Amino acid sequence: MKVGKTKELLIEQIKAKIPLLVQHNGILDEIAIQLNKYNISIGNIIELINDSDKLIEAQLQELLLLGEQLHLKFADSDQDWINEWLNPSEIKELRMYIKESPYEEIITLPYTFENVLKTGHNEYAAIIPNSIIGKLWMSGITMYNPNIQRQAKRRESKTK
User: Most buried residue, 52, 81, 109, 144, by CB count within 10 Å?
Assistant: First the structure.
């Protein structure tokens, strides 16, 4: 980052453009298309604009890419925003950034769950975070068929 530029200043610039983004839904879709090549989904973008704590926790590269797109869509001037923030070698590095997915890791068997309670003979209860469930599904260990695994429905019969 160039001298005088900080993550906090970047977050403030992003926060200033969030109201404009909220007013123009189509632009959010355009930004999502651009950021998708960096593996940043529209869900990630919405999470960032809805929660200032997520902005603070976000990686600098994500913020720079989002800030650049916001500047391109809502800029008052034609100056190159990214050159104000980064030098040429940092820009090259930013263009190669790919956000890591929490589901990328492959899980192999046997797998050990933590904090499992025995509730009965051959019965156990465990709290499994969504990220682990996603990793299990992406690894092909768990399956979900909505035609089979769905909540039961109660039917009323008219015949007596």
Answer: 81
